[in-house]
Specification:
Number of strands of chain B: 2
Largest interface: A-B, 13 and 9 residues
Order of helices and strands of chain A: HHH
Helix content of chain B: over 70%
Number of helices of chain B: 27
Oligomer: heterodimer
Order of helices and strands of chain B: HHEEHHHHHHHHHHHHHHHHHHHHHHHHH
Helix content of chain A: over 70%
Chain lengths: 102, 625
C-alpha cells in the first residue's frame, strides 16, 4: 500500500472543514448544527493525523485522541442543551432561541 | 503676665466656636454677653500684657512660640506670636475698639435676625485680626489676613435675603482677592529667595542679601504692596469699600473703618525693612496714597448716603496713612491709624444710631434737625467729625494728620506736591465731614425719630468720643508742647525720620485748611444751600457731580474692562471648550457601541459566521503578511 500524499490528506481535511462550516451556517436544525460541528472537529483531527504522518511523529494521533474526547464532552453538553431547547420552545430551530439579544 | 499673650487671639476665637456651635439655641442676652465678654476679656488681657511689656519687660520684643504648624523640610512655620511696640499698639486698638463696637452691637442688633450668627462672625473677625497683628511669621499673618477677608465677606452679606447685599459681599471678596493673590506670590518669593518666613529673620536676611533697589527686593515689596492695596482699599482696588456699606453699621465701624482696612498699613509698617530696600515702591506708596486721598475726598463730598460718605472718608484717611508710609513717616502712619480707629468707629456708631432711629434712612438730605432730638449723639458725632477734620488743638485727628503733613513736607522722600495733596485732602475732609454734620443734625427736621439708643449703645459712644479727643495728646508737635511719647515708644520697631526744620507757614496751613473747609461747608450746606444747587445745576457741575458721585467711574471702568469681557467669555464658553474633546470621545464610543449592538442578533449561526470570518481574516493576515 503506497503512501498517501500529505496534500491529499490536507485537502480532504479542508473540504471536510468547509463542509461542516457550511452545514453549521446553513442548517437551522440544532441537531444538524451539532453534526456539522462534529464534522469540523473530525476535519481538524484528520489534519493532525496527516501532519503527524508527514513528520513521522505520534503527536498528531495523540492530538486526535484529545479532539475525540473533547468532541464527546461537547456533544453531551450540546445534546443536553438541545433537550432543554426543545422543552422550552417545542422546536429545534436555533433561530427561535434569540432572546439573549435583548 | 506675658505668658498670657496667646489668650488675646484665643479668647475671641473660642467665643466664635461656642457661638457657632450652640449659639442658635441660646437666648439673646446670653449670646450677647458671650460675644461681648470674650472680646472684652481679650482687651483686658491685652491691657495687662501691655502694661507688663512697657514697664517690666527689659527687651524690645517678646516672642511666644506655641507649636510648629507645618514641618516640611526647611519649611517650618510655627503658630507663634510676637509682641513689640507696633503689634502692641495694633492689639490694643483692635481689642479695645472691637470690644466697644461689640458692646454697641448688643443693643443695635437686638431686633435683627441671626443675632448669634452676627456675634459669631464678629468674634471670628476680632480673633483673625488679632492673629494677623500678632503673627511672628508671614504664613500665620496670611492666615489672619484671609480670616478677616472671610469675615468681611460674611458680614457684608449678613442680611443675605437682599441679593444686592450678596453682590456687595462678593465684590468685596473678589476685589480683595486680587490683592491677596499678589501678596501670596510675594510671600512665595520671599520664601524662595530668603528661605524663611519668620518676620524677624526675613528682615535681617533681606538687609544682608538684597542691595537697595535690587530687582528681587522691588518685586517682593511690590507684591506685598498689592495685598496691602486690596485690603486697605487704595487705588486701584478701592471700589469694594463703598459697596461694603451693605452690612450692618457696627460691621462697617469695626471692619471697614477701624481695623481691617488698616491691615495693609500694618503689613507695610511690619515689613518696612523690605520696603526701605525698594525706594521706587515707597515712592509709589506715597503717590498712591496722595491720589487716593484726593479722589476719595472729592467723592465723599458728593454722596447722599451717610455711610457712603464715611466709607469714602475711610479710603481717604487710609490714603493719608499710605502717604505717611511712603515718605518714611512710619510712626506717623500708625499714630493716624490709632486716632482714625477711634473717631471713625465713633462716627459710624453715631451714624448707626441715626439710621436706625429714622427707619433705615441712609439719605442725608432726608434727615435734618436731629441736634435737638438726640443731643448726646449729636455731640458725639460732632467730636468725631471735628477729629476727622483735624480741627486744631482740641482733637486727636489734628495731631496725627498734622504730623503726617509735616513729615510729608520735611522728609527726603516727600516734598511739596505730596504735602499739597495732603493739604487739599485736609480741606476736603473737613468740608465733607461738616457737610454731614450740617445736613444730618442742623436745619429742619424732615423725618420722625423712633428708636433712641439704649445704654449699651451710649457707653461706647461716650468712651470713643473721649478717646477721639484724648488720644491725640500722646504725640504733639514741637510748637505745641513737644510730647513725643508715641514716637519714642515706636522707635524700637520703626525708624524715625530726622526732624525737619520748623516751618511756620507749613505748620499753620494745615489747621487753616481744615477751618476753611469747615467754613465753606457751613456756607454751602447750611447757610446758603442755594449756592450748592446753583453750582450743581450747571451742565459742568452736574456732570462732575455725577462723575464724582459714582466714585470717579472706577466701577464703570472695571465693568467695561474686566467684568464684561470675562462675563462674555464665560457665556461664550458656557459649553466648555475643553470639554468638547472629551465629549467627542464619549460620543464616538456611544455611536460605535450602538453600531456594534446591531450585530448582536441572538442568532447563533450569525455568531458562528462571524467567528469563521474573523478566523479567516487573521489567518489571511498571518499567511499573506
Amino acid at each position: 500500500m503506497g503512501q498517501i500524499p500529505t496534500e491529499h490528506g490536507l485537502i480532504l481535511a479542508g473540504l471536510l472543514f468547509i463542509l461542516g462550516l457550511v452545514g453549521l451556517l446553513a442548517r437551522r436544525n440544532v441537531i444538524f448544527m451539532l453534526l456539522s460541528v462534529e464534522i469540523m472537529l473530525n476535519a481538524a483531527g484528520l489534519a493532525f493525523v496527516t501532519a503527524g504522518a508527514r513528520w513521522n511523529q505520534p503527536d498528531g494521533q495523540v492530538m486526535f485522541i484529545f479532539v475525540l474526547t473533547m468532541a464527546a464532552a461537547e456533544v453531551s453538553v450540546g445534546l443536553a442543551l438541545v433537550l432543554l431547547l426543545y422543552q422550552k420552545f417545542k422546536t429545534l430551530d436555533a433561530d427561535a432561541a434569540s432572546r439573549l439579544r435583548d | 503676665m506675658l505668658d498670657l499673650l496667646w489668650l488675646i487671639p484665643a479668647l475671641p476665637c473660642a467665643g466664635f466656636v461656642v457661638l457657632a456651635m450652640v449659639g442658635s439655641r441660646l437666648s439673646r442676652p446670653v449670646v450677647a454677653s458671650l460675644g461681648v465678654i470674650s472680646v472684652g476679656l481679650s482687651a483686658a488681657v491685652a491691657l495687662l500684657v501691655g502694661v507688663d511689656f512697657v514697664w517690666f519687660w527689659p527687651e524690645n520684643m517678646y516672642a511666644q512660640r506655641l507649636w510648629t504648624w507645618i514641618a516640611v523640610d526647611r519649611f517650618t512655620p510655627a503658630i507663634g506670636f510676637s509682641l513689640d511696640a507696633l503689634s502692641l499698639v495694633m492689639i490694643l486698638v483692635v481689642s479695645v475698639v472691637g470690644f466697644l463696637i461689640l458692646l454697641y452691637s448688643a443693643g443695635f442688633m437686638i431686633g435683627s435676625e441671626g443675632y448669634s450668627r452676627f456675634f459669631a462672625y464678629m468674634n471670628l473677625f476680632v480673633g483673625s485680626m488679632l492673629t494677623l497683628v500678632m503673627a511672628d511669621n508671614l504664613l500665620l499673618l496670611y492666615l489672619g489676613w484671609e480670616g478677616v477677608g472671610l469675615c468681611s465677606y460674611l458680614l457684608i452679606g449678613f442680611w443675605h435675603s437682599d441679593p444686592a447685599n450678596g453682590r456687595a459681599a462678593i465684590k468685596a471678596f473678589i476685589v480683595t482677592r486680587v490683592g491677596d493673590a499678589s501678596m501670596a506670590v510675594g510671600i512665595f518669593l520671599i520664601f524662595v529667595s530668603l528661605g524663611t518666613l519668620q518676620i524677624e529673620d526675613v528682615m535681617q536676611k533681606a538687609q544682608i542679601t538684597w542691595a537697595v533697589g535690587s530687582g528681587t527686593a522691588i518685586a517682593a515689596s511690590a507684591l506685598l504692596l498689592g495685598g496691602a492695596l486690596g485690603k486697605s482699599a487704595q487705588l486701584p482696588l478701592q471700589t469694594w469699600l463703598p459697596d461694603a456699606m451693605a452690612g450692618p453699621t457696627p460691621v462697617s465701624a469695626l471692619i471697614h473703618a477701624a481695623t481691617m482696612v488698616t491691615a495693609g498699613v500694618y503689613l507695610i509698617a511690619r515689613t518696612h525693612v523690605l520696603f526701605m530696600l525698594a525706594p521706587p515702591v515707597l515712592t509709589a506708596i506715597a503717590v498712591i496714597g496722595a491720589i487716593t486721598l484726593l479722589i476719595a475726598g472729592v467723592s465723599a463730598l458728593t454722596q447722599h448716603d451717610i455711610k457712603r460718605v464715611l466709607a469714602y472718608s475711610t479710603i481717604s484717611q487710609v490714603g493719608y496713612m499710605f502717604l505717611a508710609l511712603g515718605v518714611g513717616a512710619w510712626s506717623a502712619a500708625i499714630f493716624h491709624f490709632v486716632t482714625h480707629a477711634c473717631f471713625k468707629a465713633l462716627l459710624f456708631l453715631c451714624a448707626g444710631v441715626v439710621i436706625q432711629g429714622l427707619d433705615e434712612e441712609h439719605n442725608m438730605f432726608k434727615m435734618g434737625g436731629l441736634r435737638r432730638v438726640i443731643p448726646g449723639t449729636f455731640w458725639a458725632f460732632l467730636v468725631g467729625a471735628a477729629s476727622l477734620s483735624a480741627l486744631p488743638i482740641v482733637t486727636a485727628g489734628f495731631y496725627s494728620k498734622d504730623l503726617i503733613l509735616m513729615e510729608a513736607w520735611s522728609s527726603q522722600a516727600g516734598g511739596g506736591w505730596l504735602w499739597l495733596a495732603g493739604l487739599t485732602g485736609a480741606f476736603l475732609t473737613s468740608m465733607y465731614a461738616f457737610r454731614m454734620v450740617f445736613l444730618t443734625f442742623f436745619g429742619e427736621a424732615k423725618a420722625e425719630f423712633h428708636k433712641r439708643p439704649d445704654i449699651s449703645m451710649t457707653i461706647p459712644l461716650v468712651i470713643l468720643a473721649a478717646l477721639s479727643i484724648v488720644v491725640g495728646f500722646i504725640e504733639t508737635p514741637r510748637s505745641l508742647g513737644s510730647i513725643t511719647f508715641f514716637s519714642d515708644f515706636m522707635e524700637s520697631v520703626l525708624p524715625e525720620l530726622p526732624a525737619g526744620a520748623l516751618n511756620t507757614a507749613v505748620e499753620i496751613s494745615a489747621p487753616l485748611a481744615s477751618v476753611i473747609g469747615l467754613y465753606l461747608a457751613y456756607l454751602l450746606f447750611l447757610r446758603r444751600p442755594r449756592w450748592t444747587e446753583r453750582i450743581t445745576g450747571t451742565a459742568a457741575g452736574s456732570l462732575l457731580h455725577a462723575y464724582w458721585f459714582s466714585g470717579w467711574g472706577f466701577d464703570w471702568l472695571y465693568d467695561w474692562l474686566i467684568v464684561t469681557p470675562l462675563a462674555r467669555a464665560a457665556n461664550w464658553n458656557k459649553e466648555d471648550v475643553i470639554d468638547l474633546g472629551y465629549g467627542a470621545i464619549a460620543w464616538v464610543s456611544t455611536v460605535s457601541s450602538m453600531a456594534l449592538a446591531l450585530t448582536q442578533t441572538g442568532k447563533i449561526r450569525w455568531y458562528a459566521a462571524a467567528i469563521a470570518l474573523g478566523a479567516l481574516l487573521f489567518i489571511g493576515i498571518v499567511v499573506l503578511g
